[in-house]
Design goal:
The complex is a heterodimer. Chain A is of the alpha+beta class. Chain A contains two helices and three strands. In chain B, strands 1, 2, 3, 4, 5, 6 and 7 form a seven-stranded mixed beta sheet that branches. Chain B has a six-stranded mixed beta sheet with strand order 10-14-13-12-9-11. In chain B, β4 and β5 form a beta hairpin. The radius of gyration of chain B is 23 Å and the shape is globular. The chains are: A alpha+beta, B alpha+beta. Chains A and B meet through β1, α1, β2, α2 and β3 of A and β1, α1, β4, β6 and β7 of B.
């Protein structure tokens, strides 16, 4: 069987159509967002323990960090 | 089950669909119900590196109709008695329990899934420097509340842009950003650069020159067409990620202002 390339092995190039600059007055490079925004637009690469459900784990993170909304990327259940 | 469970905080929850539809990798212990030689197991695992048919199990949240899922690879790791350890890279929505059952049928002895650990969800992997446990989250958040040093946040939180790195992308000029934040489709003049391999219908990320995610969109043209087009819509907006007003509004209103 020919092995299909998984999405994480696909190499993509960025091709330039036009040159331009960005005004430093607006927005932030993601890694330089102020703390509140850094959290608000943040994700966590969580290693789920055995036992609790994905939903419970997400709810714990929400409580620990006093957040208003939380989501998780696909259940990981038995 | 254990392993990678990406968590999206507050407004980053808008990108969660990218994980739901992204590929996964698991390490699995399959328990055989009879004795099979190691040399017989390996070729059978390789047979499943293909498009496979699966019917969702009785206890599932989706309609139970036959569907296909792509297995990118199955790498045999080791065998210990009747326990077989392997790594599998697959499309979202593949049932590994079902896969083990089917492998058991082909081997002729029967098998079931004994243990499962997710080692990848889209771009997030267990070997990443930012992978954390619940304990880490509680500890680092406590440290952050006490010291208010932003470097602490970077130890356990990644920008939502990191969730989008496997998507093809389009970079747009500052003047195109606010219209996108209002839900307008992306038109050709706003495009600065385009990722290779985009086809009509591809889901892609639209970014600023600073690398901020503006929106998720569906391509209305291919990479080549986007590079050529002088006007017209090139991507239809699916999900706005950036709040309105982050960049100045430079587009004209209907009254000709």
């Amino acid at each position: 069987m020919p092995r299909t390339i998984p999405p994480w092995e696909i190499k993509r190039e960025l091709l330039t159509k036009a040159e331009n600059t960005t005004n430093p007055k607006y927005g932030h490079t993601p890694s330089e967002r102020p703390a509140k925004e850094y959290i608000q637009y943040g994700t966590i690469n969580l290693d789920k323990p055995a036992g609790p459900t994905s939903h419970e784990v997400a709810a714990w993170v929400k409580k620990i960090m006093h957040l208003s909304t939380i989501g998780h990327g696909g259940t990981l259940e038995a | 089950m254990t392993g990678i469970l990406p968590i999206t905080l507050e407004d980053a929850t808008k990108v969660v669909q990218v994980f739901l539809y992204g590929g996964k990798e698991y390490v699995c212990v399959m328990k055989l119900h009879g004795d099979v030689k190691e040399e017989q197991i390996k070729p059978v695992l390789k047979e499943f590196e293909d498009e496979i048919y699966q019917r969702p199990p009785l206890r599932s949240s989706v309609k139970r109709q036959l569907r296909t899922r792509r297995i990118y690879y199955i790498d045999y790791l080791e065998v210990d008695g009747r326990n077989v350890l392997f790594k599998v890279g697959c499309e979202a929505g593949t049932y590994i329990r079902k896969l083990c059952f089917d492998i058991g049928e082909i081997l002729g002895v029967g098998a079931h899934m004994q243990e499962l650990r997710r080692t990848r969800s889209g771009p997030f992997t267990e070997t990443s420097a930012t992978r954390v446990t619940l304990h880490d989250v509680a500890y680092w958040f406590g440290e952050w509340e006490e010291k208010k040093d932003e470097a602490i946040l970077h130890k356990f939180i990644e920008p939502m842009e990191n969730a989008l790195v496997l998507l093809p992308k389009i970079v747009v000029r500052d003047s195109a950003v606010d219209a996108l934040c209002h839900g307008a489709n992306l038109t050709a003049p706003g495009v600065l650069s385009v990722g290779s391999g985009i086809e009509k219908g591809s889901i892609l990320g639209i970014f600023t020159l600073k690398g901020e995610a503006v929106a998720l969109a569906k391509a209305l043209a291919s990479t080549e067409e986007m590079l050529d087009l002088k006007h017209g819509a090139v991507a239809g907006l699916q999900r706005v990620l950036m709040p309105r007003g982050t960049y100045p509004r430079v587009w004209k209103t209907g009254s000709g202002a």
